């Protein structure tokens, strides 16, 4: 749901926020999504147009009950204007009401030099080195069909997730009702009491109160005759009594029964008496079922952590890694996923070895490996890493145990590789802004920081990592893709003081191994086709437009 | 957070709901969690104790601002009583206010004959055939240590999920403010405008309004001197002006900036003027990143569906299954996970074959298989199934495409096997009530039903299935465990008209195969140890107490 685009251009006309909107709507639709220009737009005052506008606005507000509203892609003042109570005010006073100078407004909504809200045009400047227009991954001729499929899949996704969420629900002042503004939850197909309902309006010979639900039915636990309460077990409950006390007793015992099986829905229940209407949300949601891991009586590291890796055509690197691991962690379980031609023989009781179809790919292997983990945490390492005395898994465990982080990375040799992902929502897909660095320190761990993505050496909550997963569609070079899939579900930290080494990049002396490495490199290379594929994946799968 | 247990016993004293609570609190704590008995408790009236109680209640309400409240484990009237405004009322009137007879109250909260709310004692009657007290899986002597670990892990889980959720927020009547009761969302570390703020209280020489946040900071876009607005960019914003119009302009342009990096948090922002306080939630949440699949220009079934199976020591069954699949679906990709001793040779370009450590187990294999799927949907089949003309995958695809279901099962021969899972929340773990059958028809598909669990033959949204996963800790017989892990995240349907066959259970004629089958059966058997392990897993991992 969107605010009518009225007044989108108004952001620019600082002194006239109440006057311009519906004019703009009628006369300057083009400016609507074009704040940059409108900032310096003309400043004609148009008091004459005030009353038609107020009329429309009151009709709009009265008609909708709640203001159609969203943060997603509506310029700032359009939102505010639409919320201004529709009361005429003296023109002179209006002139006093100014917003901050544009520069200060911008700064309030600027992150890392990226000015997001209320611009929300999600126009990426793809000129930057990392900048990509994901659409460019497709042939122009295919785009119409691709976009139709993308839109259809996106709508199916939204329907299932209960998106877009209903617009904010705005309470009017001086409502005679007490009611729960937040936090009433019911499991699908279950019944709950609604707390806090009461009426404290003016005295009257009889009180008529009506409750209305849309995704469920209403009832009251009060024992009163049908003449007083009508519509028990239906979507509309009517109460009519001359006793305010009885009315409140009935209200205090109202119940809501969810009649839809869909999860994650919000019903907006209304409570009416005469011209007063209160609306409040009832969230239909199933509780989260925990998936806990028992660390065992001694809380040994091997009962808390599993090491996972993926290898391809370089057994010597893998073996070197395993040896280095054993030097420091003799009994940790190591899970190896291998999509090479020949299966390996590994004599290590604590290594679990899995073979895959040849060349199935990098993320497929990573996803296989983590699918087998049975401990609370999993440590990801590449097959050419090298453990040393600074590779302290315990430190990473301590961070995850004492914070809400889902993933915490270390560093590979000197390489810390922290990056932030900033999401800017747009109508035809979101824009993703990637910047190196971090957001701030981790609570309680000053040497660690919160960020969006880290190196290929990280400890993670197994259950959370499995939930995000490594997309097996990504066959070759892929890394940031995982953290993009994890946006919003993975809280990522980085503790550079925990360091893993890297094996020499010099080619192997041994003939056979050298030829294997050659073959490996031909597969490892990020071909143009691969890059195109990844861009297309962001465009279609993640519903992104571009990245900067 | 819990309501003081006052009045828990009150449910029984129908005519005296206002009088008994704090007496009960003082004198009959034992009854509190024991509604069954208290229903028939004594009926002494105790008007004398009314005023101390009212005093306490008003202090309670005033002091808390919102009523401490939860549906989780507080008997019904305790909740309602705590919400009754603390105003003395004539004793005679009180006598009229009765709740429905107990029988009708029970019925309102009874599902499948299981009476849940407000009993919420989560005492399973484990006498039923399927009934289990999960604690019994542990040695009595180990329990104290186990419970300590279980509690610690549960608390870590809750901290990370932002649980328990704050109690419902109750709006008082006749507040002079307009404000957003629901739907204001901000990404962690981002800034949003707060819509709908306004003051419509009585005229006054100066208006003093204070906004307070706890997980973020406040500001306003209004350009006003510091004498009018104090605390920009801080947790408390103070507005002081003699112009109501300016006050409302400032309020209409208030912004909220999230200062915590944790996701899924709710900040309760308060808006105060004199004695009036409005509170509203600001949800700190990252948008969900879509993971869409491109069905391709022709929307071929092979671009939409992958078949996944797990096999162990019975290659002939697997081969028979594959042949039957190819009869009807020549080019669908089939993913096979095998933890047998010897790897198989399968000559089929559309079969992906994975080998695992010997006997790694049933759910590990299932989890491996689904980790490799790259299509929107995945069809699960056992290795001893047999496709026939009624095995119409297209029908199941149609159901998932047109509904919000995540999983839709068919039937195996005549076996429909639908079961419902009812969750009853409790303090030391939840109770799970399992009943055969379904909840109701699927919207738009009268021949299909909504339920909680189905047979081992189902089509699922790959992304959702991977998110829930098959717990690799479950090595042997396991089935319902998956649907329990999926409670609240999987919406399950069943369409029995889509049927898969089952291969003959007669032992193989061939000597070698027969001996394999023997070996298989020794592994397949659900040993006592295995059963214990599963019960323990429900107790610890899912934080359940028992099942009926």
Automatic annotation (TrEMBL), chains A, B:
Tell me the compartments it is located in.
Golgi apparatus membrane
Write one Gene Ontology MF term. acetylgalactosaminyltransferase activity
Q: Which GO terms describe its cellular component?
A: Golgi membrane
Cited InterPro entries: Glyco_trans_2-like (IPR001173), GM2_synthase (IPR011143), Nucleotide-diphossugar_trans (IPR029044)
What biological-process GO terms show up in the record?
carbohydrate derivative biosynthetic process; negative regulation of cell-cell adhesion; protein import; skeletal muscle fiber differentiation; skeletal muscle tissue regeneration; UDP-N-acetylgalactosamine metabolic process; UDP-N-acetylglucosamine metabolic process
Q: What are the boundaries of the signal sequence?
A: none
Q: How does it sit in the membrane?
A: Single-pass type II membrane protein
Q: Which residues form a coiled coil?
A: none
UniProt entry keywords in alphabetical sequence: Disulfide bond, Glycosyltransferase, Golgi apparatus, Membrane, Signal-anchor, Transferase, Transmembrane, Transmembrane helix
> Which parts of the sequence belong to the Glycosyltransferase 2-like domain?
307-413
In terms of Pfam families, this protein maps to: Glycos_transf_2 (PF00535)
- Where exactly are the transmembrane stretches of this chain? 53-71
User: What protein family is recorded?
Assistant: Belongs to the glycosyltransferase 2 family.
PANTHER family found in the cross-reference section: BETA-1,4 N-ACETYLGALACTOSAMINYLTRANSFERASE 2, GLYCO_TRANS_2-LIKE DOMAIN-CONTAINING PROTEIN
* Oligomeric form and interacting partners: Homodimer; disulfide-linked.
Q: What is this protein called?
A: Beta-1,4 N-acetylgalactosaminyltransferase
- What organism is recorded for this protein? Equus caballus
Task: Give the classification, highest ranks.
Answer: Eukaryota, Metazoa, Chordata, Craniata, Vertebrata
Q: Which gene encodes it?
A: B4GALNT2
């Amino acid at each position: 749901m969107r605010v009518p685009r009225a007044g989108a251009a108004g952001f620019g006309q600082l002194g006239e926020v109440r006057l311009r909107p519906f004019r703009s709507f009628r006369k300057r639709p083009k400016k609507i999504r074009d704040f940059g220009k409108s900032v310096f737009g003309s400043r004609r005052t148009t008091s004459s147009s005030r009353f038609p506008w107020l009329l429309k606005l009151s009709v709009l507000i009265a008609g909708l009950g709640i203001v159609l509203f969203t943060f997603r892609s509506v310029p700032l003042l359009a939102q505010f204007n639409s919320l201004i109570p529709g009361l005429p005010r003296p023109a002179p006073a209006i002139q006093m009401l100014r917003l901050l100078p544009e520069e200060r407004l911008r700064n309030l909504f600027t992150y890392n030099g990226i000015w997001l809200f209320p611009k929300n045009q999600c126009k990426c400047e793809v000129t930057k080195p990392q900048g990509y227009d994901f659409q460019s991954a497709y042939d122009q001729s295919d785009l119409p069909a691709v976009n139709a499929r993308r839109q259809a899949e996106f709508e199916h996704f939204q329907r299932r997730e209960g998106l877009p969420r209903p617009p904010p629900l705005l309470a009017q002042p001086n409502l005679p009702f007490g009611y729960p503004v937040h936090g009433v939850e019911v499991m699908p197909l279950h019944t709950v009491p609604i707390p806090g309902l009461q009426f404290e309006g003016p005295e009257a010979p009889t009180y008529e109160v009506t409750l209305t639900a849309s995704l469920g039915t209403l009832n009251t636990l009060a024992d009163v005759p049908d003449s007083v309460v009508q519509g028990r077990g239906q979507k509309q409950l009517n109460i009519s009594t001359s006793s305010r006390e009885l009315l409140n007793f009935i209200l205090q015992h109202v119940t809501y029964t969810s009649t839809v099986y869909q999860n994650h829905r919000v019903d907006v229940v209304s409570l009416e008496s005469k011209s007063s209407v209160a609306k409040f949300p009832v969230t239909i949601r199933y509780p989260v079922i925990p998936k806990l891991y028992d660390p065992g009586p001694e809380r040994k590291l091997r009962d808390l952590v599993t090491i996972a890796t993926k290898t391809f055509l370089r057994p010597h690197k893998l073996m070197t890694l395993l040896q280095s691991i054993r030097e420091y962690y003799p009994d940790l379980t190591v899970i190896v996923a291998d999509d090479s031609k020949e299966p390996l023989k590994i004599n290590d009781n604590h290594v679990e070895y899995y073979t895959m179809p040849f060349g199935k790919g990098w993320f497929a292997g990573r996803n296989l490996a983590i699918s087998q983990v049975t401990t609370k945490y999993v440590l990801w390492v590449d097959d050419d890493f090298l453990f040393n005395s600074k590779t302290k898994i315990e430190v990473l465990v301590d961070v995850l145990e004492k914070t809400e982080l889902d993933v915490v990375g270390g560093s590979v040799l000197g390489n810390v590789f922290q990056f932030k992902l900033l999401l800017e929502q747009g109508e035809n897909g979101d824009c993703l802004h990637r910047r190196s660095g971090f957001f701030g320190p981790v609570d309680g761990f000053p040497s660690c920081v919160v960020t969006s993505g880290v190196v290929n050496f990280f400890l993670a909550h197994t259950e959370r990592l499995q939930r995000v997963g490594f997309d097996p569609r990504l066959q070759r070079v892929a890394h940031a893709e995982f953290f993009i899939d994890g946006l919003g579900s993975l809280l990522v930290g980085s503790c550079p003081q925990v360091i893993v080494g890297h094996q020499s990049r010099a080619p192997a002396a041994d003939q056979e191994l050298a030829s294997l490495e050659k073959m490996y490199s031909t597969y490892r290379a990020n071909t143009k086709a691969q890059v195109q594929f990844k861009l297309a994946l962001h465009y279609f799968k993640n519903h992104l437009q571009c990245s900067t």
